[in-house]
Design a protein that fits this description.
Oligomer: single chain
Distance between the termini: 101 Å
Structural class: alpha/beta
Largest sheet: 6 strands, mixed
Number of strands: 6
Length: 386
């Protein structure tokens, strides 16, 4: 029987010929079956029909060149014939392509089928339970890490035979505190301007513009200064802790340090946590001052409140307790940021995707804990009458 080509061959002689003998369909690929020819060959194979054949043969002995694209097309054709009820009784290729064919057959060539997302109340309960157990496990692991860091910190401070890594400690104060001054100052100044403007806009209705100074002083010193500074540091320094330690995990530097007998908590965690505990209260005080300056500038231009009048009203509105309430929370926020950042960094797996995922998680967890503890402090101070 005469061979019938499905498409006219081109200069590379890559083609597919068909032979039909009763219930047998014989496919004869010829030429160079490579990635350059794959678009045209794909169109040819998509037009292939069994036409009532019950058996098929794929004779690829005339294939001159075969790469993974060509092998995939032939294997897909074999699979499509079998799904159409045609038994492929032979599939031959030149011997030199046997390893490639074996590798391609080992892969899952079936089309990707997206799983149907389950819905309903049962699925909601499963997700809720799974999320709850994950949160409890995360909290339990973080609590254990907190205990380890606390013990290491006490031993490092009280033991005369152990020396704190002073150089790393000072460097962390510089990186988390000194280099953060520009961004913290800029945002604090702008928030002070916004708070003064919004407060004045509301108080002007009652002719009480002067109380904008009280609103600014109490609001910034008690809450906004420490909260905004902690959130900025969580996004800036907390994420840096996770990314740095996580990259060391990926590069197996942490494993090398443990092999050398170094205490990971003492070398990597304590300098960051203690450095941030020192730097964040100073940043909070700096943000308070800059925020008040921003509000004072806004009051001067918008309300015509002079600097001496602003300072007199501010002095009558706040006490030293107002400042201390904001500063007392700063070391706690700093400890939470450092703890979460280092904890997530040490949980990074040995791939880049894990570094990015846990860095994001560390920022989210830090901000969540900061706001939670800030609310707890507010309730506590309210009960104590501070």
């Amino acid at each position: 029987m005469r061979n019938r080509p499905l498409a006219a061959p081109d200069a590379t002689q890559a083609d597919l010929h068909l032979e039909k003998r009763q219930n047998l369909l014989r496919l004869v690929p010829v030429g160079d079956w490579n990635v350059a020819q794959s678009p045209r060959l794909d169109l040819i194979l998509q037009g292939l029909r069994p036409d009532g054949a019950r058996e098929a043969e794929i004779d690829g002995r005339q294939v001159d060149e075969l790469d993974s694209a060509g092998a995939w097309l032939l294997l897909r054709t074999k699979r499509d014939l079998e799904q159409a009820g045609v038994r492929v009784r032979s599939f031959t290729l030149p011997e030199r392509y046997a390893p490639l064919l074996h590798t391609m057959e080992a892969e899952n060539l079936a089309p990707v089928k997206h799983a149907v997302r389950p819905r309903g109340f049962k699925y909601f309960l499963e997700r809720t339970g799974r999320g709850t157990m994950h949160a409890l496990g995360q909290g339990y692991a973080m609590l254990g890490f907190l205990g380890r860091v606390t013990v290491e910190a006490i031993e490092a401070i009280l033991s005369p035979r152990r020396e704190l890594p002073v150089a790393a400690f000072v460097r962390q104060i510089e990186e988390t505190g000194l280099t953060a001054l520009p961004i913290v100052g800029l945002l604090a100044f702008l928030i002070g301007v916004v708070l003064a403007y919004q407060g004045a806009d509301q108080l002007r209705r009652f002719g009480a513009e002067i109380f904008t100074v009280d609103l600014l002083g109490v609001g910034f010193l008690r809450e906004l200064g420490g909260l905004v500074t902690a959130i900025i540091v969580a996004g800036r320094s907390g994420s840096a802790f996770t990314a740095h330690i996580g990259t060391m995990r990926v590069n197996e530097e942490v494993d090398a340090m443990e092999t050398m007998g170094l205490n990971i908590a003492e070398v990597l965690v304590l300098p960051r946590v203690l450095g941030l505990v020192i730097a964040l209260p100073l940043l909070t005080f700096y943000a308070d001052v800059v925020g008040l300056i921003g509000g004072m500038v806004m009051c001067y231009f918008d309300l015509n409140i002079t600097v001496p009048a602003f300072l007199r009203e501010l002095q009558s509105a706040i006490t030293y307790k107002t400042l201390l309430v904001g500063l007392i929370k700063a070391p706690v926020f700093a400890f939470l940021i450092g703890l979460v950042g280092c904890f997530e960094g040490l949980r990074v797996e040995r791939n880049a995707e894990s570094v990015g995922r846990l860095t994001t998680r560390s920022v989210v967890e830090s901000i969540f804990l900061i706001i939670t503890f800030d609310a707890a402090f507010s309730i506590l101070f309210s009960i104590l009458g501070i």
